[in-house]
Amino acid sequence: MLAVGCAFVAVPAGASAAPVDLATAAPFVTLAGAAVTNTGPSVLNGELGVSPGTALTGFGAATVNGAVHANDAVAAQAQLDLTNAYGVAAGQAVTSDLSGTDLGGLVLTPGAYRFTSSAQLTGTLTLDAQNDPAAQFVFQIASALTTATVSRVSLVGAATPCNVFWQVGTSATLGTGTAFQGNLMAAASISLNNAATVQGRLLASNGQISLINNVIDASMCATTSAAPPESSTAPESSTAPGPAAPAVPGSDTGSGSGSPAAPPAAGEARLARNGTTVWTRTPPRAMSGQPACTAGFTATLRGRQIKSVVYRLDGRIVRGATRSPFRLFVRGLPGRHKVTARVTFKDATPARTLTLGYRACAAVALRPTFGPSRFTG
Q1: For the structural domain made of 275-377, what CATH number should be given?
Q2: Please, which residues have CB within 8 angstroms of residue 4's CB and are 6 or more apart in sequence?
Q3: What one-character DSSP code corresponds to residue 34?
Q4: In a 3-state reduction of DSSP, which class is residue 69?
Q5: Which of 25, 38, 176, 203 makes the best surface tag, with the fewest CB within 10 Å?
Q6: What is the rounded distance in angstroms from the CA atom of residue 7 to the CA atom of residue 26?
Q7: Where are the domains of the chain?
Q8: Closest C-alpha among 102, 116, 191, 201 to residue 151
Q9: Is 307 helix (H, G, I), strand (E, B) or coil?
Q10: Strand order across the beta sheet in which 276-281 lies
Q11: Which residues form the signal peptide (predicted)?
């Protein structure tokens, strides 16, 4: 019997895998061939679709921060592009054959990894991009993928879930509380147990996707299938940026996802970029006998044209919101921590990620605080 203390096994570095292009399937956070079913208050930060099936059931209690496509032309084309992407992933030159090896405890560098039958994840798999944000990881799994309860995929060294691809020959099952990362492409079905989360996408070519109180987030790889405006020109008033939100002490205006767009060429359609956002927090409440610690604070987002906000605590999603008030109450967790908000807008304003750091000394609990809305968008 192996000793429990054998924590990590490093796999030697190999050539990075080739890029896998999802094309029109990229906007979908969940795309199935037959049906998508949901139980409980799941959150999908991306588009939801099914084709050639039509069944999307149980989403009355869920939050879908994206368009919904039930066997329309968009979903049909996405399935064709998914088939191509699946084939590209399956055809990668293999860096290492991991058949019969549990992924838990491994530290893998960029490359393509093969399993000639099923694959299992028990514990933590670490993917190290070695400070290359473009590094690709591909997993070729001939049959099923299964994760144990509270297993996780950890990304380090500038790795991103957008560049991690799981090509699964049959079905994938994520255990209760699993924290998964990457684009999960299954030929048959995908099933998530209660409270499993995915940073990436769930894409099933033929079968069903089943969700139970899950959070699926592809906002870090944000793209949209929405068609551009048909008009070749827009009213002049739509091109003028709105006034900036007033500066408030302690606010964090965040950072955009890219550099400002260049002025459009003559005759080119102008898309409104009127979105603004500012994040403020109330003065921290000092704990009795511990004035240097923060017992809690309320973080409030205000601005124009806000479409959705995804909140994270130390990188883990804790809430998604699609209407005002965009407000979160944070109770303290001992030590130093970071709360982030990923904000997307209703117009062409680039998405922004805002950050608040804090130090506290109490048990943590994040929950929305309800009250009168001050949202002006």
Answers
A1: 2.60.40
A2: none
A3: S
A4: strand
A5: 176
A6: 35
A7: 9-221, 275-377
A8: 102
A9: strand
A10: 276-281, 296-304, 326-331, 366-367
A11: 1-17
Q: Give the tokens for residue 3.
A: 């000793």
Tokens representing 262 are 């260049």
Q: 165 Cβ partners below 8 Å, 6+ apart? A: 17, 20, 85, 89, 136, 137, 138, 139, 182, 183, 185
Summarised one tens digit per residue, pLDDT across range 128-174 is 999 999 999 999 999 999 999 999 999 999 999 999 999 999 999 99
As given in the structure block, the two tokens for residue 212 are 């139970």
**Are residues 245 and 277 in contact, defined by beta-carbon separation less than 8 angstroms?**
yes
pLDDT digits (tens, 9 = 90+) for 285-299: 444 444 445 456 777
- Cβ atoms 146, 162 nearer than 8 A: no
Phi/psi at 69 (nearest 5 deg)?
A: -125, 110
Q: How far is CA 342 from the centre of its chain?
A: 10
Half-sphere CA count of 137, side-chain side, radius 13 A:
30
Do 108 and 130 meet the contact criterion of CB atoms below 8 Å apart? Answer: no
CA distance 59 to 68: 11
The reply to whether the predicted model has a pTM over 0.85 is no
Radius of gyration of the chain measured on its C-alpha atoms? 22
- Tokens representing 122 are 């028990």
